[in-house]
Structure prediction request, 297 residues.
Amino acid sequence: MTADFQSWAGHCQVSIETLLGSRLPASDVVPVRLHQAMRYAVLGGGKRVRPLLAFAAGELGQADSERVVVVAAAVELIHAYSLVHDDMPCMDNDVLRRGKPTCHVEFDEATALLTGDSLQTLAFELLSEKNLADDAATQLGMIKQLAGASGSRGMAGGQAFDLDNVGKMLALPELEFMHIHKTGALIRAAVMMGAQCSNYLSEAQLEKLDHFAKCVGLAFQVVDDLLDAEATTATLGKTAGKDAENNKPTYVSIMGIREARERAEKLQQDADQILSEFGDSALRLRQVTDFIIKRKF
Ligand code: GRG
Prediction:
């Protein structure tokens, strides 16, 4: 990771943290326990990969960063909600997330459920209240995109498919179907919504970015599977080795570590190939992709 990228990413992370901190209800506002849990689940942790993608896509189109940070925050709120619900006993039943006890362990199950619900609705509140695009139709399109990416034909649907297939052997196309929905849809929304904050990108360019985002979404998941198999709980800040323990189909269980690593590299090449058509303006997107592929946590 170059110093230049590190400082850019650090700057994005500070601006997203500041916006989220100011838009999440304060922890002394009633109902206090719920607001404390919402802040606990969102602030001070996570790599903020989806916001980084939104910022990088925004830069590609020279979008106003004050718009992009709102879009990035909305996507991160949906992501945080999904982690809170995913960790609950009715789903993955995990006790560690972002290096600290999961939300239902720190608070309780009912609070965790309401925390996820409230983070989800706050995301749409943010997206609907600010002038995020030059015309209302584009902004409505963003809201629709995030709703689609989060719901039963996106992330929640992918999660349902995942839960249905625990303990079963999946073929690669089925595994990819699951990940395109469960993880890929939100990553795609982050890129596309960041790009849509700009007025300068053509339909053809947006289509290319969408293709890029699909490659990155899958690459993210391949690396996530590799890390689950290879990294430690201390490095990940979440329980390592859960996929094998829960007998979950993954890229590693289907194709082994070496081939999964090759698949991630091939997806990065495909992503870079698409970005080459954008020249230097895609520098940040190339760097975020590289960070996603080479990350250690
Ligand atoms: C509960 C509707 C619902 C959906 C849950 C995304 C998801 C669906 C579950 C998370 C479980 C999981 C570990 C999925 C694999 C990929 C993933 C989303 C990893 C966590 O994302 P990171 O690495 O996390 O971006 P940080 O903490 O850095 O934000």
